[in-house]
Structure formats: structure tokens, C-alpha cells
Recover the amino acids of this structure.
């Protein structure tokens, strides 16, 4: 078993993008994790772009599992598009494993991830005509065909056993986030300008004041970035491998 092999090498198992329709544990494999893995051997479960803590905590068997938010950390330009904040003595692998075990003061203190509606597999999607399905739909209302890419939203409604969700006491808050490259009007030049004004996208989104943003990119884009930080821009729905669009 992979967990044994990793134990012998001091490695860990993290269940990635658990709810997505392409090879996700719940998304395309099983209804209960123990049909495939021993969840107690997994160090954490990664939520994927199309789900958040509230959605995942509709599955009661995940109550003891630590959630991480890291989607697309495998693509260098997308690094830290989602992230989590943790307390530890020193940022190394051994301390990080303690964080995932929630060992005393070693804890994740915040999950930061995409608004789930923007995720590219959030809702089911008709493979014939591209319509976004409504809940419980088995036949496309637009074209009458029955082949869908199952959305994370719909899949979680199937596997959920507590709705509304119940989060365990140890669960950290989840901060919804819109990455800079999804905000309308932020092209390559503007992005470079912002990164020259602030240490990083992450620190800009978390710490920059509106006045500092105005000084960097002018009032219109500064306002738009600030609205994005507060989840106050319009958002479309992601489905079928296409992200939801953020509206100006
Ligand atoms: Zn259709």
C-alpha cells in the first residue's frame, strides 16, 4: 500500500482535488472514502478549486481530516493561487507534518481558496451542447442528451450526509479569494506594475491599502482589486473545464 511505502520513507499522503470529476476520490471513484483508502492514514485532503470548507463539511466522515487549499500548485505560474496559513516553529517538512496532524500549536490557521463557483468543475456540464446543468438534472434541458461532466456541486449533493454542513471545532476559517489574473483589466503590464509596487501578489491582496493601490495602478483598477478582495465583483459559474468569469 502506498501509505506503508511512504511511512517507511517519512512521506505523507494528501488526497488531492478530492471532489473533481477527473480522478477525484469522491468526484469519480467512491461515495465513502473507506471503499478505497483509510482516511486516517491520509495527512490531509485538498479541496480543489471548485469546493470550499463549507461544501466539504457536508461529508461527516471528513470531520477528523485536515483540509488544505493548494490547487494548481503543480503549475509554477499558478503557485499560491490557493494557499493556507499555518503556525509552526520553523518552515520545514517535519514541522509541516505536525501542522497537518494538528499537533498542539502546530495548526493551519486559515485556508485561502477560490470562490467555488469560479472553479472549472463547479457545476455539471452537458457534453453535447455545453449547457450548465441544474441540480438533479439527468437529461439536458437544452438538447435532451444525457452525457454530463459531473460538477463538484452536484457530486457533493450526492455524497453529503449532513446538509447544512457541520464544521468540526478544529477547522480553521476559509477565506474566499480571487487571483489577480482572474480580475478583468489586469493584463501582463498591469500585473508587472503591481508586482513592482508590492512584494508579491499574495502580500498585495492581503495587505495593500486602497490608497497604495491607487498610487500604483490608478483609481479604477484599485477599486476593482479592492472589490475582488471583498468578493463584491459579479461572478459567473465554472463548468466543464472552463472557469467562471469575474465581471468588472
Ligand atoms: Zn445539452
Amino acid at each position: 500500500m502506498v501509505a506503508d511505502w511512504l511511512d517507511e520513507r517519512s512521506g505523507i499522503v494528501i488526497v488531492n482535488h478530492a471532489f473533481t470529476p477527473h480522478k477525484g476520490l469522491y468526484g469519480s471513484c467512491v461515495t465513502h472514502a473507506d471503499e478505497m483508502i483509510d482516511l486516517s492514514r491520509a495527512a490531509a485532503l485538498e479541496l480543489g478549486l471548485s469546493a470550499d470548507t463549507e461544501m466539504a463539511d457536508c461529508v461527516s466522515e471528513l470531520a477528523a481530516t485536515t483540509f488544505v487549499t493548494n490547487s494548481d500548485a503543480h503549475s509554477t505560474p499558478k503557485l499560491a493561487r490557493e494557499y493556507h496559513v499555518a503556525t509552526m516553529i520553523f518552515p520545514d517538512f517535519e514541522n509541516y507534518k505536525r501542522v497537518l496532524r494538528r499537533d498542539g500549536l502546530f495548526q493551519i490557521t486559515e485556508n485561502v481558496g477560490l470562490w467555488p463557483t469560479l472553479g472549472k468543475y463547479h457545476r455539471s456540464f452537458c457534453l453535447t451542447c455545453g449547457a450548465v446543468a441544474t441540480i438533479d438534472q439527468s437529461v439536458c434541458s437544452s438538447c435532451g442528451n444525457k452525457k454530463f461532466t459531473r460538477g463538484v456541486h452536484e457530486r457533493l449533493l450526492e455524497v453529503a450526509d449532513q446538509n447544512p454542513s457541520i464544521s468540526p471545532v478544529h477547522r480553521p476559517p476559509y477565506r474566499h479569494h480571487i487571483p489577480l489574473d482572474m480580475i478583468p483589466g489586469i493584463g501582463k503590464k498591469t500585473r508587472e506594475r503591481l508586482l513592482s509596487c508590492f512584494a508579491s501578489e499574495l502580500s498585495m491582496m492581503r495587505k495593500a491599502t486602497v490608497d497604495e493601490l491607487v498610487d500604483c495602478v490608478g483609481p479604477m483598477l484599485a477599486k476593482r482589486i479592492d472589490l475582488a478582495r471583498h468578493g463584491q465583483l459579479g461572478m459567473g459559474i465554472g463548468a466543464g473545464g472552463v472557469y467562471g468569469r469575474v465581471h468588472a
